[in-house]
Amino acid sequence: MSIPAQYHAFAQGIIRFPALRPISYFVWSHGFNSQRVQSYARASKRPALSLVSQELRKEGIVGTHVNHFFSSHSKHLLEQIENELEQKRSVASFQKNAYQTKGEKAYREMFLSKMLSFEHPAIQLALQPELLQMVGDYLGMWGFLRAIDIWHDFPTQQAEAETQYWHRDYIDVMNVKVFIYLNDVTKENGPFCYVPKTHARGSIAKQAQAEKDGRIRDEKMIAVAPESQWRICAGEKHSIVIADTSGYHKGLKPTKSDRYLLMFLYTSGHPWYPRDFQWQKEVALDRLPNDQVRFAVLQGNNQ
Ligand SMILES: O=C(O)CCC(=O)C(=O)O
Ligand SMILES: [Fe+2]
To answer: Is this model's pTM higher than 0.90 or not?
Structure first.
């Protein structure tokens, strides 16, 4: 099914115009993503939503830890990813920004290639059942793995830029972004920050006022929710932060040291921008063991 161009504008109604939320949510889930919804519903009859997805629905953000959330297989995959990262970092010729793609951010280098194999441990980790089930429980449909990367954020001489200001991600009606911290993160090395309940289906519908330069500053965010409610996600290595980034968020600018994290982004089968990586070679369908994984790998509504 091809999606009419008007769809995106309509779907954005759920984020920009609270009055349109119920109808645009309905069309998004039961129209354009209906097969994903049905397959999820069949597999998860009367889902006893995990505490993580329940909290995510209510707050738009939830924190957990690798030791509480990951199976031993997932932990093993994470170790492989960290070993690979360590090797890349130790290559003498490795330059800051060497892995950046064009138009990217001056405060971040990214380690994963945009051509990935299905076997890559980061892909395998992103497709583990504890993650896909949590994403499905939150979205109410099987999610699609829209983006994946390893970020290294570092202090710069410049002022805050881009995602270091409050913003919403206009990527889909709902989304799930998973950050796995690969080092200890404090207020000084760029924690992820979030204003709870501002996600598309959250209880705070108020929109923050942007300045002329398009930035939303702290003073304007206070009008949406008092600072005492903001979540500054400091956490030790292997903390997991899960957020629907349709809600207001930013990465606090690192002041003293660096931050490393693994990032997965899951959306519906119809994100507003295409997947940001490609398969090195087409994934053989018999490698996809069930609907949960099939829908995560293959874009669209029908598998
Ligand atoms: O750097 C961060 O913690 C936040 C980045 C961001 O805006 C995003 O992941 O959507
Ligand atoms: Fe963002």
So the answer is: yes
